[in-house]
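Consider a protein example.
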Amino acid sequence: MRNIFVLVFAVLLASHLNADYKTGKAIFAKKCASCHGGYISAKILKKNFYKDHNSMLHLTAPTVNMIAYAMKDSPTHIGDSSDPAMQKMEMESYLQDYLYHPNINNSICEPDFIKYYDKKESMKGEVSEKEIANIVDYIYDYRKMRLLAHPKPRKNFSGTLDLPTLIDEAKRQNKILLVEAMSQTCHFCKRMEKDVFSKQRVKEAIKKDFIFEQVDIEHIKLPPLLLKHYQKITPSFFMISPDGKLLNAYPGAWKTNDFLEILKENKALK
């Protein structure tokens, strides 16, 4: 049994050593791209699925960047991300099994999106194991290569949140100022956006008694009043009274009911 495992490991390792990003890209374009479209930004995808229920893009399969994210970087990613060689092999094993024996129950795509996709047909006989190894190499390096080809512009970090203006507005409306220190790269910020801020009762509670300001701390500095209470945790929430006093600071992400309770407690302090 041990010799068989060593032999299988050696074969898989050899296939990865021969795998090539450019070759994988060409194979994907030839055999996969007719169903799996090219890059679409996360912002547009989010709007398409969560707000427009796929009526904007009418996607019948995940895009290439959705596949790359799901397999390599998502919470349900394939393999151990701390060991790239082993992760590639596990991604190859998964992809081969899924392409040859499609099963919706074995999909790693976002469950909320799967209902919009067409049924996957087996590609056994259409794509070889060696081609799958190359496709995995392409998928594995997709994000890195795209960032090299399309670098993000440098941001101006000199700006600081204009807290006095926000406090003036809070005072004018007799509402509490709610400031969220967040980041576009923060997983828990995204989860709160999806699981908490999207809820109608949360939207209504904020709209009624709060002025809500989200601050991307990678691009905008927090003012001294908030900075001295900021524990370098995203998300973090700051409650400021209409007269400019810091009421409370809450580091970390929260579930819907807990966050609603926080809003209720601070509303009573106004």
Residues 1-19, 153-157 have pLDDT under 50 and may be disordered.
